[in-house]
């Protein structure tokens, strides 16, 4: 490998048809040989970016980055620990809803006397305001409230709703 | 930068590889992960700053990249070097950032001031240009490149990565990498002829 080979290979470098070993040698040569560097830059000024030399790393920036990343990792861990303590309640509420939903479906398919669907008649009389359902579970700060709507005549039927307090009217 | 180096740093006099740090970090050792950040963030920042033409934004991207890496450490594939993996995350974030920028912001991007250099007879300024100057010029003209062209060109031509590794970082084939670099060099060449004629030899200046 010498300067003559370098000159012959110049076009191959620009055309991206050089294999990796040859390309590695080419880059090393262009940085070491002033004459070949001059010739190459005349052919293609964009080679300034290849021969420009390695820039030093910003060591102060690195240390700042390390501190920032470590701090954020610790904060994420703390947040996860805090939220993790409330997860059992969420899981329990979700399990209750699933069980009740399955029960409702079972009842409607297999159980109870068949009732004819009653026609819905709009009443001109203003319906009295109903009292809000009893709040079953209230977890402050958590996006879960579980209400129980129970039909007193049918103790097999209970409906639970999990509501996001932000959506409650 | 030679990206094929396994990535080695010392800890208490004992040299540990990236894989060993990763193993300890997977067990929850934050200090082990901090060593990986210390080892790779400088080089990643240098590459991302060149791609984005912005130092400060590059540090934000680097921090986000390492946080993502921490969150996905259990999915790290040891077939690839950590360098390739973290560069892939960082480069993808940088490309996303470029795409999210408005074209107006790109046109008015304030980069390093270009210093005009006196050129001697028959000699182009490029012959005396150093890394700082090359970076300064790149910041002024990098917007002529697509995000993929920028990334491929910076990673291989300026950071010294092998074509195959650049392909792994960018998630494309080596042929595509070469094509990106070919197109990038062509665009940069034309842009330099127009905006930086002092980098051409006296015989070629208009």
What distinguishing features does this structure have?
heterodimer, A: 169 residues, mainly alpha, 6 helices, B: 61% helix, 4% strand
Structure characterization notes:
The complex is a heterodimer of chains A (169) and B (206). Chain A is built from 6 helices and 3 strands, in the order ααααααβββ. The termini of chain A are far apart. Chain A has a 3-stranded antiparallel β-sheet. Chain A is elongated. Chain A has 169 residues and is mainly alpha-helical. In chain A, 53% of the residues lie in helices and 9% in strands. With 206 residues, chain B is mainly alpha-helical. In chain B, 61% of the residues lie in helices and 4% in strands. Chain B contains 9 helices and 2 strands; from the N terminus they run ββααααααααα. Chain B has a two-stranded antiparallel ribbon. In chain B, α2 packs antiparallel against α3 and α2 crosses α7. Chain B is elongated and about 60 Å long. The N terminus of chain B is likely disordered. The interface between A and B is large, with 38 and 51 residues.
Please sum up the structure shown.
The complex is a heterodimer of chains A (169) and B (206). Chain A has 169 residues and is mainly alpha-helical.
SSE diagram, text form:
The complex is a heterodimer of chains A (169) and B (206).
Chain A: H1 3-14, H2 20-32, H3 34-43, H4 48-51, H5 59-84, H6 87-110, E1 135-138, E2 145-150, E3 158-163
Antiparallel strand pairs in A: 1-2, 2-3
Helix pairs in contact in A: 2-3
Chain B: E1 8-11, E2 14-17, H1 18-26, H2 30-52, H3 55-71, H4 82-100, H5 103-107, H6 131-141, H7 147-158, H8 163-170, H9 174-195
Antiparallel strand pairs in B: 1-2
Biggest interface and which pair forms it? A-B, 38 and 51 residues
Kindly estimate the percentage of residues of chain B that lie in beta strands according to DSSP.
under 5%
Helicity of chain B, as a percent range: 55-70%
Structural class computed from helices and strand pairing of chain A: mainly alpha
- Spatial separation of the terminal alpha carbons of chain A: 81 Å
Number of strands of chain B: 2
- The total of helices of chain B stands at 9
Q: What do the pLDDT scores of chain B average to?
A: 83
Helix content of chain A: 40-55%
Strand content of chain A: 5-15%
Main beta sheet strand tally, sense and closure of chain A:
3 strands, antiparallel
List SSEs of chain B in N-to-C order.
EEHHHHHHHHH
């Amino acid at each position: 490998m010498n300067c003559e080979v370098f000159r012959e290979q110049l076009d191959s470098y620009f055309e991206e048809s050089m294999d990796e070993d040859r390309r590695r040698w080419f880059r090393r040569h262009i940085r070491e040989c002033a004459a070949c560097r001059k010739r190459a830059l005349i052919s293609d000024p964009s080679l300034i970016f290849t021969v420009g030399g390695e820039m030093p790393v910003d060591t102060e920036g690195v240390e700042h980055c390390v501190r920032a990343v470590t701090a954020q990792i610790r904060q994420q861990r703390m947040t996860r620990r805090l939220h993790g303590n409330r997860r059992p309640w969420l899981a329990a509420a979700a399990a209750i809803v699933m069980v009740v939903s399955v029960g409702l479906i079972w009842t409607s398919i297999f159980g109870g006397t068949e009732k004819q669907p009653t026609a819905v008649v709009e009443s001109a009389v203003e319906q009295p305001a109903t009292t809000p359902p009893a709040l079953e579970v209230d977890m402050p700060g958590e996006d879960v409230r579980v209400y129980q709507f129970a039909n007193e005549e049918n103790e097999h039927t209970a409906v639970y709703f999990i509501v996001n307090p932000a959506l409650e009217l | 930068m030679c990206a094929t180096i396994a990535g080695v740093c010392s800890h208490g006099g004992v040299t540990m590889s990236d894989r060993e740090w990763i193993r300890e970090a997977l067990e929850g050792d934050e200090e082990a992960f901090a060593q990986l950040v210390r080892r790779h963030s400088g080089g990643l920042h240098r590459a991302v700053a060149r791609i984005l033409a912005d130092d400060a934004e590059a540090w934000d991207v680097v921090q986000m990249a390492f946080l993502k890496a921490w969150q996905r450490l259990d999915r790290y594939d040891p077939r690839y070097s950590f360098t390739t993996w973290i560069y892939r995350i960082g480069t993808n974030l940088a490309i996303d950032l470029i795409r999210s920028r408005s074209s107006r912001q790109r046109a008015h991007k304030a980069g390093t001031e270009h210093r005009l250099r006196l050129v001697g007879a028959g000699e182009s300024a490029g012959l005396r240009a150093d890394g700082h100057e090359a970076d300064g010029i790149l910041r002024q003209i990098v917007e002529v490149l697509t995000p993929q062209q920028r990334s491929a060109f910076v990673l291989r031509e300026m950071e010294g990565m092998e074509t195959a590794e650049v392909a792994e970082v960018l998630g494309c084939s080596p042929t595509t990498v070469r094509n990106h670099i070919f197109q990038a060099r062509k665009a940069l060449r034309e842009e330099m002829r127009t905006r930086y004629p002092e980098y051409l030899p006296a015989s070629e200046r208009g």
